[in-house]
Amino acid sequence: MHTLLLAVVGSFAPDFTLQRIAEYDGGVEKGAEIVSVQSSTSRAVLLNADAGTVDVLDLTDPAAPKRVARHALELAPGEKSTSVAFHPREDWFVVAVQCAGVWSAGRFDVRDAKSGAKLASFACGVGPDSVVFDASGRFAALACEGEGYDFDPKTRTFRSPPGSVTWIDFAEGPQSAKARTLLLPGFDDVPGVCSKADARRIEREVDWNGNGKIDEHVDFDGDGSVTRNSETLGTYEGWDVRAEEEDGEVFSLPLFGAPASAVEPECLAFSPDASRLYVTLQEVNACAVIDVAKGELVARFGLGTARHVADAKKDGQIDFAAELVLLREPDGIALGPDGRFFVTGDEGDTAPKVTKVVAPGRPGGGRTLSVFDAASGAQVGDTANQLDAAAAAAGLYPDDRSEHKGSEPEMVLAFAHANRTFAVVGLERAGGLALVDLGDPAHPKVLGVAACGADAKSSKRCEPEGLALHRRANGELYVLSANEGSGTLTVFALRGG
Question: What confidence tens digit (pLDDT) does each residue in 84-106 have?
């Protein structure tokens, strides 16, 4: 067994740790997807996406979070809430809403935190998936994926709406706010993005029959039976699209480059001065940078590959022996406190899995937290296999995901505390949060992994999604994890120093 990095993590005695101190269960199955904190009032909003509700929590005692309100979002049939953000100071929060239809614009609602009443509403790009405020609260921004696909039977082509970013200026209050939307171009000419040679694919649900439903079993060839046969059904960007009849709702779409139709904004973060927006484009392995005042795309960064050892076999053993070169495919993003660098959680989203990759193709999902120069986009450093090794040391490593993307680092926070710089990254499949020392950005050091649940079994059901930072007036710092799988919220205290 290859144990070098595991031994390093296990032997390091960190002076800071994350300690699990509380859990909130709102009683909503597969709820608790996104959390956002208003530290000035010790409150949080928690999105229960499937239920279409938002819980308002009192964090006066972080060890005993208490629900003080539950607001219904009054969604129409076919609509889905995807993200929530609490204004840093005002008594209202914002919700991103995906509307029915592949090509339908999304919506951005402003709601009163006490009553839940809708104060204002704005149109945004197609398929909004995440929303954030800048530190001052003047701006909010949405990453609009446009990840849906439809099929044109006349041309036998699959189509997807463009990805975009919408931001709203609240300088004059919610009722007088102004929204702007920027459509993003293709990234094929940018070094370090997904290429034809990588031979990656994305799997998406498609309304094949145009009947408004996603059908699981489809007789594509019309022979009167539904089998596991894989059929070529049309093209996407000139490349063949296939699907299995018994898994007919999932279509395998080729991602042999980074055309505009494949650019799907995932997460975003403001620079500390709110002059720029940094946006992850997971599927094409890139980051876009937008000038907020000008409303222009000012930089396009390809994020390249991570190279390290990993466990690549689902065999009941943890063996970090496979030498892998991995497209990062980041999900979460955060700017460092001084704005000089940004960090990403390199989860991955494309297929096939590691054991099905044929050279010169490369697997997707870096299994890393990566650091990049915010001005140039140059890679500064990454965690190599420290995240999976630390998850293993904590008894949380998901060996059943070894052939896929390991622990799957997803959402990420970056912050200063006690004259140090740290990051926290959620490990979706491991069910834990990793604390990372960014004191030397070229060599980020994983200090450990804390479980989201009471034990390893319950932690792996948690599937942490949204993360939020709560900084109290007395200097205490807490991290909140919204656990999509278990429908719970976990509160961690940062201890040490």
Answer: 999 999 999 999 999 999 999 99
